[in-house]
Amino acid sequence: MGHSSVRGEGTRRRGPHARDLGWDDSLYDEGSPREEEAVRVPRARTASDDERDGAGAPDVSAESSGSSRRRVPRRTKRGRRRRILRGVTLSVSVVILGTAGAGYLYYEHLNSNIRKGERNSAGSDVQKSAPNAAGQTPLNVLLIGSDSRNSSENLQLGGSKKSVGAPPLADVQMLLHVSADRKNASVVSIPRDTKVDIPECTDPETGDTHAATRDLINATLGRGGPGCTLATWQNLTGVYIDHWMMVDFAGVVDMADAIGGAEVCVNHNVYDGPKPGVPGGSGLRLTKGSHEIQGVKALQWLRTRHAFESDFGRSKAQHMYMNSVIRKLKDQNAFTDTGRLTDLAETATKSLQVSEEIGTVKKLFDLGMTLKDVPTDRIAMLTMPRIPDPANPGNHVLPAPGEADRLWELLREDMPVDGKAPTSKPQTPAAPKDPAADPADIGVMVRNGTGDAATATPRRAAAVAGVLGQKGFTQAWADKTLDPQKRTQVLFPSAELEGDAHAVAKALGVPTSAVKRSTDVSGVTLVVGADWRTGDTFPKASPAAGPPKNTETVMGDDKGCMDIYAPYRF
Q1: Count of CB atoms within 10 A of residue 83's CB?
Q2: Do 227 and 313 touch, CB atoms closer than 8 A?
Q3: Cα dihedral angle (204, 205, 211, 213), rounded to 10 degrees?
Q4: CA–CA distance from 125 to each of 120, 196, 238, 295, 517 (Å)?
Q5: pLDDT in tens, 135-180
Q6: Which candidate among 64, 73, 258, 407 keeps its CA 20 to 30 Å from the CA of 483?
Q7: Contact 554/320 with Cβ under 8 angstroms?
Q8: Are 407 and 385 in contact (CB under 8 A)?
């Protein structure tokens, strides 16, 4: 209806009509849609009318006065049935709309459960992986387990009152990598006692800025929240991490109960309790064999360290548990069962804290679906290859030179870490807009970035500059300045030198992803990083070389049992 002609009345509201719900009035009324209100002017009845209608047809002519009158409609059974049907239709529509409204309210309820935080709390120049040949991109999610005791539930599940109020530690850190085509996946843990460079981070909740430092990686959570942990991982690995998800003790218990338990196995009776000189323990007690664990028992399994001999044994046990959970969810058709998903969604939205860009139920659902089509025999879980930290070999570790670098490159290049063939084809890099000059005309400065004065490979820049000279880059020269970098890079300052930079990278086998534009250089600059300490050609990672060495790899279909450290057997 249009606007009223009465000043101040505005637009008059009307009640819903069947046509508003997609129904046609003409299906229910005889004659025109407003037949009951129509004014008919009868005409004189003719002989042809009588012949057509037959004898006894009702006389609808006007009375002798000839005046026009309003016709009284006939109420037939058919008309009543149609009006009843229309009423039923309206009632059903109300029910449907009410149900949809309830669904919307529940969806908003789930959204309101979700706690969100800043994705990255530090600066980083790490770039997202390039799409594969089909235009798909890999997915990287950092999974964080917090040891915070700053709630009564978490304090009851582990720790002492002395730990209340202390900055939380990220005692569990795993990177979930799902290939661009969603056909293989890997989970990589970094032990909590790994010594790393932590960048300057600003806590998004307090606004406090924490200066860059070198410390254990589990300290990152208390220096700027999960966003600082993510930034540290990106700087260490060179892998762009899309999101983070964090859970505490109570959340683990609730999620384990919602899943309905997961099967684990031990090769001996185990009790992870206090021992002389070794206080604490998770409290895990199991007899030899397989067990379905959930709730507090699942948390104990995930926290057990002493009985599994070390943090590395604990990581392996965590991987076995996660694989068991994935197998169970697949067996339950949880990825496609709406009812099952609803149950899990209620618990997950209360238990997890996530980075803000995935802070809705819809986005978390889409995230969960990424594992739906990954076969369990193409899910590889492993711990970062490591070596003892020379400064504290009994307690701390460092990423293993060579093998850890190879693992990070496999992830950056979206290659499987299980030693099997890739499932997707990489995209052929686009040719630079600026063509390369003749190698003899390209000036290249080479810097040694393999380490600092104590750890750098001696004369590494001169060695690589010599290799370039042999390949025709006669203007390559070695800069004596040390420029410690974890990864090899070919830098160029402006578009007209992009083709030259790519020519240098191609000559040495350096990946195109390592060629970057930078305002910190004045010409083509090759920084030989810690990932290339020896050899004339960049050591490009290949899945054919098998899983990384100096680590443990657990496949998704592996139903093995954990060994128990002798002092914790009974």
Answers
A1: 13
A2: no
A3: -90
A4: 12, 18, 9, 40, 11
A5: 899 999 999 998 875 566 655 655 556 666 678 899 999 999 999 9
A6: 407
A7: yes
A8: yes
